[in-house]
Amino acid sequence: MKRILDLIFSILGLIILSPLLLICMSLIWLQDYHSPFYLGERVGKNGKRFKMIKLRSMVQDADKTGVDSTSATDVRITPLGSFIRRFKLDEIPQLLNVIKGEMSLVGPRPNVRREVDLYTDEELKLLRVNPGISDIASIVFSDEGEILQSEEDPDISYNQLIRPWKSRLGLFYISHQNFLLDLKVIWITVIAIVSRKAALKKVVSLLSNLNAPDDLKKISLREEKLVATAPPGTNVIVKSRSTVSKG
User: Fold this and answer.
1) Other residues' Cβ atoms within 10 Å of the Cβ of residue 104
2) Average pLDDT of the chain, as a whole number
3) Are 165 and 84 in contact (CB under 8 A)?
4) Does the pLDDT at position 78 exceed 70?
5) Calpha distance 129→107 (Å, rounded)
6) What pLDDT digit, counting tens, does each position of 128-140 carry?
7) At what angle do helices 163-176 and 179-194 cross, to 10 degrees?
8) Residue 1's pLDDT is what?
9) Which residues contact residue 8 at a Cβ distance below 8 angstroms, ignoring those fewer than 6 apart?
10) pLDDT value of residue 230
11) Domain range holding 24?
């Protein structure tokens, strides 16, 4: 049923959004005459690597800097790219990844190899399912760029402030995933484009109905400052990306 939902929604989505996609592609190409697409290698189900397709929101060859986490003030983001990212338009081409079977509409967001290498044994369970275009965690942390914008090292800050909770939310989703839950996440994702505050309330209500832990519901409201936390499966806070943080 999940695969059928993925195919139907993805094909319809591409058809409906094709005019908007063509406009964005043209504008991106006109700003520097380079490809409007960004193909980023990500780790998918069972550790299989694939090329995730996005509309390019950064300057050409931005990933050669070696920085994986992006802050809102990242100089690599173009003015047009800021607009595209704000309304999640850069994610539209990932519908092709869904059609190819590399991704799902709903599932934990795919990560780069360097970040997956830091996963604990518990976090490796995230690779048991296809990664998704959206999930509960991506709604809760849709302001990831703003969180990291004042951080000296965005990659380390991501692993300390965001990764622990995104992983926990992803694991929670996997343990409760079903057709109805996917429909609810898709609907909340649409709401988030219009009102992030309303979407967060919907997320907390959803988590409550699924008897999620109190700390998971509390963090999903995003009313308190994030503090450095250990990822699931360990009690060690990440200090470096050169070692795997297993407890």
Assistant:
1) 24
2) 91
3) no
4) yes
5) 7
6) 999 999 999 999 9
7) 140
8) 83
9) none
10) 97
11) 2-221
Task: Note whether residue 232 is domain-resident.
Answer: no
pLDDT of residue 177: 95
Given this model, what pLDDT does residue 246 score? Answer: 47
Give the whole-angstrom CA distance, residue 193 versus residue 219: 20
Q: Alpha-carbon torsion 27, 29, 35, 41, what sign?
A: negative
Q: Count the neighbouring beta carbons within 10 Å of the beta carbon of residue 239.
A: 12
- Structurally, the chain folds into a number of domains equal to 1
pLDDT at 145: 86
pLDDT at 81: 87
The tally of CA atoms less than 13 A away on the side-chain side of residue 62 is: 20
Enumerate residues 6+ apart whose C-beta is below 8 A from 203.
Answer: 136, 139, 140, 188, 220
Which amino acid, one-letter code, is at 164?
P
Residue 17 lies in a domain: yes
- Determine how β-strand 104-106 pairs with β-strand 132-134: parallel
One-letter amino acid at 161 equals L
Angle at which helices 179-194 and 2-32 cross, to 10°: 30
When pLDDT is averaged across residues 207-231 and rounded to a whole number, the result is 97
Residue 77's DSSP bridge partners are 58
Question: Does residue 159 lie within any of the structural domains?
Answer: yes
d(CA 95, CA 103): 8
Question: At CA 186, angle to CA 83 and CA 27, rounded to 5?
Answer: 25
> Can you give the pLDDT at residue 242?
66
Asked whether residue 59 is domain-assigned, the answer is yes
CA distances for 236 relative to 32, 111, 118, angstroms: 44, 21, 12
DSSP 41: E
**What residue type is assigned to position 151 of the chain?**
E
Q: What pTM value is reported for the model?
A: 0.88
